[in-house]
Hints:
The protein is an alpha+beta fold. The protein has helices at residues 8-71, 75-93, 99-121; strands at residues 124-126, 139-145, 155-160, 163-165, 168-171, 173-178. The protein has two domains: 9-71; 75-178, Head domain of nucleotide exchange factor GrpE (Nucleotide Exchange Factor Grpe, Chain A, domain 2). The strands form two sheets. The chain has a three-stranded antiparallel β-sheet. A hairpin with a 2-residue loop joins strand 4 (163-165) and strand 5. The model has no long low-confidence stretch (mean pLDDT 88).
Amino acid sequence: MTETTKTPEELQQETTTETEVVEEIVVDENELKIADLEAKIAEEEARYLRLRADYDNLTRRNRLDREASEKYRAQSLLTELLPVLDNLDRALQVEVTSEEATSLFKGVEMVYQQLLAATEKEGLELIASEGEAFDPNFHQAVMQEQDSEKEAGTVLRELQKGYKLKDRVLRPSMVSVNE
């Protein structure tokens, strides 16, 4: 067996080549780790942005729900009071002839006015009907009549008053519409 002896220069070159290969492998591994870490960072940033957007949407939705809840807090009570208003209004339509009935009439009228004022403070509004153009958002047509003096689609009579709470219709007006 013959051993080949290498010169110190050959050994130096061989060592340098091996070192370069090792350094190249280490550099490649580091670059892979860096690329992997950068991808993870980008993924986490995207996840954070999605979570932040979800949180912002949730807080906005909660705020809008709270505002709507506050705005329409009296809706159920006012809806229950609408028949009371109707009955008081009907009671005021009766013609009074005796003095006793007149004082009772005035008492009912005062109660009606107080109730109307209290409900208006909460945002209850009467929907205008007679003489207005028919609007299906505010009126419910229950019959049609013929009046040649008025335009077609005009409300001729209001059969039951309609009410809205701020911008929400609680009960549409029941109306008779011109053909």
